[in-house]
């Protein structure tokens, strides 16, 4: 026993305060220890009901080993995993039983050692995948829907929070979309909890959320293909207490991925590796001494804030880690989280890989649409803007439709816009089908997606198909403030950035004054009322058609640029986008003139803060190659 009564008066802290004050120790494997009791092939989660004395004994041993956090025996305690055991009707019972056992062990720790032990409600990934098909002949099919998985998680998380856990640990994540379903369920439970408390919501005990992904092999990606950086970006909308790595690899194999994760994660980092890689008999060979030796670099290089064990680890492994932590010098400086995203000028999006772009700031000298941090959104996967794409979708010729997306990525698109709004299409079904197919092609899905629709149910369906961090195009105040708030909350819960079109109840903003008025109003609602991260807000101040022959249209472009400058100067953290093709719509058929107009427009808009455009990335020409006379005519 490594804790004595010297710590008997340890001050009670919240879990977040504990992370702020010390290195944390998580427990180790549950299944591997259960087997040492002669139990093999059992439904481990049901043991909390059928053999609670064994689960309690294991958790007591972890308490005696010196843990700060105990995970509940609920890794598979949701209806999706329990279906094969025909135990769906006992979900609530097994979750309640598991929390009560863990809380008993924690209470004994306080009585025995005067030490606070925190309870983490353990939520596993299930055996299903939302991002990949189980049918090799139908890559668009899924064995479960987002809503079905979210409902299963909601049922579990509801009970865990009712039983007063300190955090929900969503772990062993091999598909980030599964984790986003669990995160969405957590948000819904917390919102319901706060609503029930009413005026006393501020007095409720905080419940944190924590994520831990699994690197499937030396590629450093999840089974569904995401890099550690893309994973971090994809779950950071939850403002988790920690993210980290577990399972998959031994302690030494985690090191390079912990370094990468730590560079981008504005939260604490955890790691609970296996006791090495499985041997030929499926066992794990790393001894407690082996693991401590291999994990030394975690502390030496300040890679983590919490350690523990996964498959093959035992209370003896955790006791060795406790000794290692207790041996740290008094002046040991722990790893500090990276800066919060909200304080950073970076736009952070993700497909299978992350997209980090600096904010294009006014007067920064950028003078072309090829400025390094300008975001090019490929526009050709839009049934409203591409007759070819519409024809292919109508014909169900998805292979050629995917070729269009792939070509845009090859031509330099940073993001792919997908729009299925056509009166003859089932837009929701087509959005789901195309995004599911796109997810199966790593050459395309490595970049983020812009889910584009005028119908919010299509947007929501699209967000539930993408494991990365998408952009939503778009929401506005056109239908009033309440609908705007509801849509923004849904996007935030599902982890998207969002384009805000400058419309309100009176219609589209077409002049400078209306643009800045609506932009300021939307910012106040999203940032001050909803807590939206400003770096996830992208304004579209309405690129409107010029040179139509109508005098009132002549100032459209210059008013857009003036509004861009005002927004960037007055609404910190946001970005600006626009649909370039609208500008030159009066010259349909004259492609060179249209391309020259787009290039010239960007030449002036980018230095004033425009950082993104929906465009054909292969159809932009070099500004200096445009004849002087044509440039002058365009800007006249």
Q: Top keywords for this entry?
A:
636 residues, alpha/beta, TIM Barrel, 2 domains, eight-stranded parallel beta sheet, 23 helices, elongated, disordered N terminus
List the helices and strands and how they pair.
Elements: H1 15-21, E1 24-25, H2 31-34, H3 47-50, H4 52-65, E2 69-71, H5 79-82, H6 91-113, E3 118-123, H7 146-162, E4 167-173, H8 176-197, E5 208-213, H9 228-235, E6 242-250, H10 255-264, E7 268-274, H11 288-300, E8 306-307, H12 315-326, E9 347-350, E10 354-357, E11 375-382, H13 387-394, H14 398-410, E12 415-419, H15 427-439, H16 442-445, E13 449-452, H17 456-463, E14 471-475, H18 481-493, E15 497-501, E16 503-504, E17 507-508, H19 512-529, E18 537-540, H20 556-570, E19 575-576, H21 580-583, H22 591-605, E20 612-615, H23 628-635
Parallel strand pairs: 1-8, 2-3, 3-4, 4-5, 5-6, 6-7, 7-8, 11-12, 11-20, 12-13, 13-14, 14-15, 15-18, 18-19
Antiparallel strand pairs: 9-10, 16-17
Helix pairs in contact: 4-6, 4-12, 6-7, 7-8, 9-10, 11-12, 15-17, 19-20, 22-23
């Amino acid at each position: 026993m490594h804790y004595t009564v010297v710590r008997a008066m340890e001050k009670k802290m919240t879990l977040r305060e504990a992370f702020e004050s010390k290195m944390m120790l998580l427990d180790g494997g549950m299944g591997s220890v259960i087997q040492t009791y002669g139990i093999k092939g059992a439904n481990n989660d049901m043991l909390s009901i059928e053999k609670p004395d064994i689960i309690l004994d294991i958790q007591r041993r972890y308490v005696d080993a010196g843990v700060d956090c105990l995970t509940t025996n609920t890794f598979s305690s949701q209806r999706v995993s329990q279906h094969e055991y025909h135990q769906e009707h006992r979900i609530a019972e097994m979750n309640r039983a598991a929390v009560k056992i863990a809380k008993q062990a924690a209470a004994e720790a306080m009585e025995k050692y005067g030490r606070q032990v925190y309870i983490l409600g353990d939520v596993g990934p299930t055996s299903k995948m939302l991002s990949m098909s189980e049918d090799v002949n139908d890559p668009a099919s899924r064995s479960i829907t987002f809503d079905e998985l979210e409902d299963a998680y909601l049922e579990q998380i509801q009970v865990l929070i009712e039983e007063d856990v300190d955090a929900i640990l969503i772990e062993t994540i091999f598909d980030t979309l599964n984790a986003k379903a669990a995160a969405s369920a957590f948000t819904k439970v917390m919102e319901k909890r706060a609503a029930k408390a009413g005026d006393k919501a501020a007095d409720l005990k905080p419940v944190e959320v924590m994520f831990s992904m699994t690197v499937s092999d030396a590629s450093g990606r999840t089974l569904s293909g995401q890099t550690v950086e893309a994973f971090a970006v994809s779950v950071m909308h939850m403002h988790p207490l920690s993210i980290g790595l577990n399972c998959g690899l031994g302690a030494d194999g985690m090191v390079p991925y912990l370094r990468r994760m730590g560079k981008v994660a504005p939260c604490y980092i955890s790691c609970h590796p296996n006791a090495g890689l499985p041997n030929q008999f499926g066992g794990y060979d790393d001894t407690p001494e082996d693991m401590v030796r291999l994990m030394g670099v975690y502390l030496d290089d300040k890679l983590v804030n919490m350690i523990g064990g996964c498959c093959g680890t035992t209370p003896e492994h955790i006791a060795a880690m406790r000794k290692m932590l207790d041996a740290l010098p008094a002046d040991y400086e722990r790893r500090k989280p990276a800066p919060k995203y909200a304080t950073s000028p970076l736009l952070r999006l993700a497909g299978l890989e992350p997209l980090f772009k600096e904010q294009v700031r006014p007067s920064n000298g950028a003078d072309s649409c090829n400025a390094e941090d300008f975001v090019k959104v490929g526009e050709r996967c839009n049934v409203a803007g591409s007759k070819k794409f519409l024809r292919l979708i109508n014909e169900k010729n998805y292979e050629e439709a995917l070729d269009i997306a792939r070509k845009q990525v090859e031509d330099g698109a940073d993001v792919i816009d997908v729009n299925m709004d056509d009166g003859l299409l089932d837009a929701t079904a087509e959005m789901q089908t195309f995004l599911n197919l796109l997810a199966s092609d790593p050459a395309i899905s490595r970049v983020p997606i812009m889910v584009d629709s005028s119908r919010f149910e299509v947007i929501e369906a699209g967000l539930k198909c993408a494991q990365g961090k998408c952009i939503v195009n778009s929401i506005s105040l056109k239908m009033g403030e309440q609908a705007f708030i509801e849509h923004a909350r849904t996007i935030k819960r599902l982890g998207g950035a969002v384009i805000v079109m400058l419309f309100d109840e009176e219609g589209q903003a077409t002049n400078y004054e209306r643009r800045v008025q609506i932009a300021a109003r939307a910012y106040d609602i999203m940032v001050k009322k909803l807590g939206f991260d400003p770096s996830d807000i992208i304004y579209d101040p309405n690129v409107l058609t010029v040179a139509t022959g109508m005098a009132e249209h002549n100032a459209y472009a210059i008013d857009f640029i003036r509004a861009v400058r005002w927004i960037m100067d007055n609404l910190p953290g946001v970005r600006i986008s626009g649909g370039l093709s609208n500008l030159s719509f009066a010259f349909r058929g004259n492609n060179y003139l249209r391309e020259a107009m787009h290039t010239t427009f960007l030449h002036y808009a980018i230095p004033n803060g425009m950082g993104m455009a929906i465009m054909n990335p292969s159809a932009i020409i070099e500004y200096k190659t445009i004849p002087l006379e044509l440039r002058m005519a365009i800007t006249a």
